[in-house]
Amino acid sequence: MAIYKLGDIVKIKRGDPKLAGKHLKKIQGKYPLIAGTGQNNGIISYINHWKFKKGITISRVGTAGKVFYHNYKFNINSVAYFLDIISKQNINEKYLFFLLKTKEQLIISKLSGSAQRHLKSSVLLNISINIPPLNTQNSIIDIIEPHEELFLRHNHLVRIDTIENAEKDIKTLIDIIEPIEQLKNTINKIKLILKKHLILIYKLNQSSKEPIKNQIIIKNKKYKNEKFYCPTSLVSELSLNKENLILLDQTKKPSRADLTIEDNSFIFSKIIGENKLMIFSKAPNIVFSTGFFNIKSKNETNDHLLSFLLSNDFIYQKNQLQTGTLMQSLNKENLNKIFIKKDILYSNNLFSQLSNLINLEKNINSILKKILKIFI
């Protein structure tokens, strides 16, 4: 095992600053362009020329510090680094990628700047890494590659300094972490099926429409000393990111943290765009942003109302009734102008099933979080 500075084994290359903005439209093609995004393996566009046959990139600006491997011809712009290995006789490129993925959080911790975080090349090249002999590198690659996606999701849990450690940690991921992830995926598939059924039910409903105010009550309870705050960013369609809820300090409570929801109710975002919708059979100890509406069904049966809130009809009407210039949203007056088909279901079955699945998903996430803490 030899200890190096990253700068001892790689040279950094930067891309063309012209490969950005409007210029990209003129050079569209089939070769991936890598930039500063943390998504889609760093790819932001496709252009008509390539510079590198394959290799490792690290985002420099934007979502800086993200490490990617590209087994195809590609190019980079000026907000990404390409790592050019000096001696490939001693370093397997794929092993170096795996090693840097295990150090990704360390790299991110070394970013500079406040308004725009960025990774200095001098800082990156000064990172210390342990490199085993080439035959050990190759053996570790053989262990990881059959489970590469699992490794990339939990790379901080895998030691790749020795063959024994790599085998042990990958086996832990396979035996313990992967089954929990598979259960989460199954729950999400069931949720998707129920959502599709609800949308179809509303579409097939042939009853006449009436003002939504005939069917709902708009609730507006204020903050009641809840422990956590949920901004609109943590909610998507029938999903709430509880891992990132904000623990409230009552002396510094955000002014928008002022919506206490009720049991057996819905919230959805006032902002136009993504359908941020969540359901609650029992209200949690969370105060929500006033960027949400909290509504209840007047007849206390929720399947029909849920089917409408998931429908394209609701999204279309919400968009048509938007107000504002910088941030288009739906106000209370215009919410009452929305029309909804009359209820033919008078049931709560699908609402209850989805609520149970969401709670199960929450519990599984909590278990997974605790398990991951044990291995860190």
Task: Describe it.
There is one protein chain. With 376 residues, the chain is of the alpha+beta class. The chain has three domains: 2-131, Adenine-n6-DNA-methyltransferase TaqI, Chain A, domain 2 (Alpha-Beta Complex); 159-204 and 350-376; 205-345, Alpha-Beta Complex (Adenine-n6-DNA-methyltransferase TaqI, Chain A, domain 2), CATH 3.90.220. The protein has helices spanning 6-9, 23-26, 93-102, 104-109, 121-125, 134-144, 148-153, 163-204, 303-309, 312-320, 332-335, 349-375; strands at 2-5, 10-14, 28-34, 43-47, 55-59, 67-70, 75-76, 80-85, 128-131, 209-211, 216-219, 228-230, 235-236, 239-240, 246-247, 257-260, 265-269, 277-280, 286-289, 292-297, 339-341. The strands form seven sheets. It has a four-stranded antiparallel β-sheet with strand order 2-8-5-6. A hairpin with a 7-residue loop joins strand 5 and strand 6. It is elongated and about 75 Å long. The model has no long low-confidence stretch (mean pLDDT 94). Residues 3-151 form the Type I restriction modification DNA specificity domain. Belongs to the type-I restriction system S methylase family. This is Restriction modification enzyme subunit S2A. Keywords: DNA-binding, Plasmid, Restriction system.
